[in-house]
Amino acid sequence: MCHQCCRNNRSGVVICSNCKRKRYCYECLAKWYPKRTQEEIEIACPFCRGNCNCRVCLKEDVVVLAGDDKADANAKLQKFLYLLHKTLPLLRHIQREQNSEIYVDSRIHGSQLTEEHVTKSLLDDDDRVYCDNCSTSIVNFHRSCPNPDCSYDLCLTCCSELRIGFKPGGNEAEFSHQQFFERVDSQGALVHDQITENEKGVGCKIQVSDLESKCTADMSCKFPDWIAENDGRIPCPPKELGGCGTEILTLRRIFDASFVENMIKSAEELTLNYQSPDIRLCEECYLCHPTSSTEKGSKDFAVRKAAYRENSDDNFLYCPNALQLCDDDFEHFQLHWMRGEPVIVRHALERTSGLSWEPMVMWRAFKGAEKIIKEEAHRVKAIDCLDWCEVQVNIFQFFKGYLEGRSYRNGWPEMLKLKDWPPSNFFEECLSTAWC
């Protein structure tokens, strides 16, 4: 019986000479292991190699190759301290925003308020709150509509912009609204293109024409005015912008009072004696820049030539080998990452047993995720990376697109990314083969 498909009526199978137990049929090998030859499977089957992607093995935990525990612990500590050091400015900025919003509410109510006076939102542990205007994630403080039929949420950045007279969310929010109408318009055009000769009735033409006219009219209209009150209060936006237009947004918090302040104190204590590595972004990387542009030099310095620009010092990309990494390579990686340069890590999958990012393997794992999170997984929400708009996509077509490629009608390549699916707290359980 084939270990992959559990069928015993296949015409040909390959028996593993290593374990002498597992066998894989020709059809499964061609479909799920196209990069492996039958000779390689006979020497050691996918199960013995630790990368079997049958339904049972997909649920197994990924095994990471063991290393020096003491060295790994020290390196991990330095990485955590580095992250804390870099996160401190952001935490202080969040705290300043929260204090500013409390000050606004204190002026409105005519009395000094603290975080204890801010109502805590009732959320589940795995809930994530987004700004309904600019779609960014909300960290803690935000303003929310008290209308139970509305529940519009607004981030503090949009609140601040609204008070000084700017359009909240800037170009991102406006672009999001415009792309919505353009997407509806393109869908109408797509429907028009797909009408066959037998369906070209008057009713179909009228529906498409009405849809296109509505989109054009909506695009030409200005968005409704939405301004803050003189005392700093912010009304819920009109229905055209997703709100109810009747209530005043109230200040809410997600975490306990003084949560951010306590995080800042803890981070400052832990990083008190930490010295951040001195990284000069304006200079070329002396660690990996080869002394010559020869192929031999690029191999010796773990770089890969990616361009052929004359009189340029950035023709090479840092390309480390995951099997030969040491503690110093972390700072080396940081130098390139802080510059915004891509880094190609070689042999990353060889450090694990069972780790797989093959599109169709992940699709099969996603099918099993329905039972874990008890959600329908045939159609999921995705983000179009061209315009950052939300779309609905069939989960099989999503992964098939990464195997064969997706494109728009004009020939441009299309790239989609799933929007928080599966939820972060279920990711390891649903996709253990992609979690490490």
From TrEMBL:
PROSITE patterns: ZF_RING_2. Belongs to the JARID1 histone demethylase family. Its main location: nucleus. Keywords: Metal-binding, Nucleus, Transcription, Transcription regulation, Zinc, Zinc-finger. It holds the Pfam family zf-4CXXC_R1. It comes from the Eukaryota. This is RING-type domain-containing protein. InterPro entries: LSDs-like, Znf-4CXXC_R1, Znf_RING. Residues 2-49 form the RING-type domain. The lineage of its organism: Eukaryota, Viridiplantae, Streptophyta, Embryophyta, Tracheophyta. It is found in: Nucleus.
